[in-house]
Design brief:
The protein is of the alpha/beta class. The protein is built from 9 helices and 11 strands.
Length: 233
Amino acid sequence: MTDTAKSALIVRGGWDGHAPVEATELFIPFLRDNGYAVRIEESPAIYADAAAMAGFDLIVQCNTMNTIQREEQQGLRAAIEAGAGMAGWHGGIADSYRNDADYLQLIGGQFATHPGKHPDERHGEQSDNYLPYTVEITDLGRRHEITAGIEDFPLTTEQYWVLHDDLIDVLATTTHPVQPYHPWHRPITSPAVWTREWGQGRIFVATPGHSVDVLQDPNVRTIIERGMLWASR
């Protein structure tokens, strides 16, 4: 590693259903090809190590339904406020540490649900929640370097409904339709790709990415790769 090399930290773990190892391994060659030395950690414990965190330009997190200690969350926030970037997809960033309100504020959007198929079509599998939907690029997204040149595109996978605030810049959305077997009464439009500026740092989130095949979709993969570079210090 040279003095001018960039450094990326990958923090992965949590629920095995999101294949955190396989999912992150998909992007490591891209990071290395773009000049990053990559360090991999299997828990957020490193976030509490201020000296280590000061050396990272980019934090890529894939850690679903886990917990974070207060000193770890504080270390992560401090690193981003000082200029480190953070990037992630799906539950690995938007459903990571439900126990910590300060983490939820940092990310700007929190997984609430992924509506499922008709009850008669459910069989107790992950695929019960795989629905066809469209990722729609916003006007901002059509101008933004992360999503420029990408048209609206279809996916069949989990469609995230996220709770969010208006400090995020939404590059793409997805709309949950009204179904007779769901309790809401009008379509719900939810952010699907967003960015957030926090202190001197940048945060990038894409909600598609439930499984490796979704991450290999050319549109999803391009958005995530560009998002990582955009977020990096």
